[in-house]
Design brief:
Strand order of the largest sheet: 3-2-1-4-5-7-6
Largest sheet: 7 strands, mixed
Distance between the termini: 26 Å
Order of helices and strands: HHEHEHEEHEHEE
Radius of gyration: 15 Å
Strand content: 25-35%
Helix content: 25-40%
Amino acid sequence: MTEFWDVRYRDGVTPWEGARLSPEALAFFQAQPASRILLPGCGSAGDLPLLLDCGHQVLAVDFSAQAVEIARAQWPQAAAHIRQADFFAVEETPSFDMVFERAFLCALPPRLHARYAEKMARLLRPGGALLGVFFIADTPRGPPFGLGMPALSALLEPAFVLESCVPQAEGVPVFGGRECWMVWRRQHGNGDL
């Protein structure tokens, strides 16, 4: 699977890249105290500089060597924050305050969705947030592999509770206006998966 993504980054076929943080997302990150944030499947890590500028401690990971090479070349001042790694092998201690997801879940085949939810629950401290721009669509073939809201809720609950959902007016064209900025709050105790 790594080769699939390496080829796309090498050939510049990355229509999911180039999105900017929405006003809602930017306001959210600016309002937070300095936090430990994970960016899984970061690609060219376009959100990384803004998050660092907000004072956050950020780890951006992607398992595509080509994506990591592009990200480090594009953001040399932030290269130390970019690592080639498999999301499912990222260490959970200490826990992250936030995981910022942008087109990561929809890049994963459906057979990995349950593992994604379990890993997110382990990575985040209770009260932490899984947040980002989610592709909301019933598209079982992909990538992108979209999920409708009922399926996404079933996947993330009971470990997470949806705190905010705002449709994104100016998303990435490849997602056809079906992106939502969401904040899912990690529950304490019995909400574990």
